[in-house]
């Protein structure tokens, strides 16, 4: 079986942290360019909060970069890897490109346990960092214990919460960047809407 390192692109080391587009224009602006390369990105919320769209947009973001999408709890679309029966220990050998998505880590935890999921993240994080690869994983709220959520968040370099608030006849959706490694988390929410094309986030600032 091929070494995972043969699939992942080398990224030249420079003095300034490089950023990789998130696939969402407003979120790029909020994060001053995107996700720092080589980081693990956790997105969490309810199943209808827009997590799947955010993951898809990150995977398909413009720039010509190759990526890998592991789908283990939804419909497998063209280009994705069917990971329903794939043990997390087998993911690394199939990771190609610089944009890796695991949809979802929650399914791995339910199926194999939180220790196995955290072991998997620990094993790949140094390789992701070394190669400048971003790995995004989806976590659903209301499934895991508070301790499990805490441990998962501590493992991630970037943590983004997708919030949904129903007010009278309107649904208000916002993103909250709760954590970003080696930087101050933005002190404002990012409003967004879900359209036929996916997530569209506001580029205006909202003070929290």
Overall mean pLDDT stands at 90
State the major sheet.
9 strands, mixed
Strand content: 25-35%
Order of helices and strands: EHEEHEEEHHEHEEEE
Question: Which CATH class is shown?
Answer: Alpha Beta
Q: Provide a count of the helices.
A: 5
Q: End-to-end distance, in Å?
A: 50 Å
CATH architecture, by name, is 3-Layer(aba) Sandwich
Output the CATH homologous superfamily. Answer: P-loop containing nucleotide triphosphate hydrolases
Number of domains: 1
Q: Write down the oligomeric state.
A: single chain
The low-confidence runs, each spanning 5 or more residues with pLDDT under 50, are 1-14
Helical percentage: 10-25%
Globally, the shape reads globular
The secondary structure category is: alpha/beta
Radius of gyration: 16 Å
Quick one: how many beta strands? 11
Q: Order of strands across the biggest sheet?
A: 5-4-6-7-3-8-9-10-11
CATH topology: Rossmann fold
Write the layout of secondary structure elements.
Blueprint: E1 19-20, H1 25-30, E2 35-36, E3 40-45, H2 51-59, E4 67-71, E5 81-82, E6 99-103, H3 105-112, H4 114-131, E7 134-140, H5 146-155, E8 158-167, E9 170-180, E10 190-195, E11 198-201
Parallel strand pairs: 3-7, 3-8, 4-5, 4-6, 6-7
Antiparallel strand pairs: 1-2, 8-9, 9-10, 10-11
Helix pairs in contact: 3-4, 4-5
Short structural summary:
The chain has 208 residues and is an alpha/beta fold. The protein has helices at residues 25-30, 51-59, 105-112, 114-131, 146-155; strands spanning 19-20, 35-36, 40-45, 67-71, 81-82, 99-103, 134-140, 158-167, 170-180, 190-195, 198-201. Helix content is 25%, strand content 29%.
